[in-house]
Design a protein that fits this description.
Elements lengths: L6 E12 L3 E12 L2 H21 L7 E15 L3 E17 L5 H12 L3 E9 L4 H25 L3 E14 L25 E14 L1
Antiparallel strand pairs: 1-7, 2-4, 2-5, 3-4, 6-7
Helix pairs in contact: 1-2
């Protein structure tokens, strides 16, 4: 009977950084009005004005996505009368990909100006249009980290590494960068600078090696 081989299982992590070339913006519209038809009409108008400005700045249709649409009554409690409808809220959300980060501040400012007081900026994320090269470097770093850990464990056990029996990858992207509360209603007259800096890709690898005597 063949005995099961001795193994060592480790998790290696690696991160690679590069200058981002893609900004994903979450921009919303909220309209509170006395009647449902006006709330819906004004929200639609503000959203259309924003998308028209974005297209005017060269943002392609596939880079503009409606990601949410809500319409609800707002109620308040009054003593002796119970719950009463105080108005209606219509809201929608756009996810916008900007591929020229150097011009993104001006585009965001123009979009805010087009939407007016109903605009809400919910955050942005800097990343890569094609992240394969950065991901490959992160995987290589994670592999080297895993092998270093495995060799250390093998040495402690008085053994050496054999063949790789399995490997699994877990990737994570950088979370969106939230805008401070005071910026939720942005001043269109003063564009906020967007500093690209660097963005990172982090990868973790679970690797199992055979242990040899």
């Amino acid at each position: 009977m063949t005995e099961d081989p001795r193994t060592v299982s480790v998790t290696g992590s690696g991160t690679a950084e590069a200058a981002p070339d893609l900004l994903t913006l979450s921009i919303g519209v909220e309209c509170r009005r006395a009647d449902v038809a006006t709330a819906y009409r004004d929200a639609a108008g503000a959203s259309s004005a924003i998308t028209a400005v974005l297209r005017g700045h060269g943002v392609a249709n596939p880079d503009i996505t409606t990601s949410g649409l809500n319409l609800r009554a707002e109620v308040s409690w009054q003593e002796g009368r119970g719950q009463l409808v105080s108005g209606y809220l219509a809201s929608t959300m756009l996810s916008v990909r900007l591929r020229d980060i150097s011009d993104s501040a001006g585009i965001i400012s123009a979009a805010v100006a087009a939407g007016g007081d109903e605009v809400r900026l919910n955050g942005l994320q800097l990343g890569f249009a094609d992240a394969e090269d950065v991901e490959a470097r992160a995987r290589e770093a994670a592999w080297n980290d895993a092998r270093t850990r495995a060799e250390h464990f093998a040495a402690l056990a008085g053994a050496r590494l054999g063949k790789v029996l399995s490997a699994a990858q877990h990737s994570s992207a950088a979370p969106p960068l939230p805008l401070a509360g005071g910026l939720q209603r942005a001043a269109a007259s003063e564009p906020l600078a967007v500093e690209a800096g660097s963005a990172s890709v982090t990868t973790a690898l679970d690797v199992v090696w055979e242990l040899l005597d």
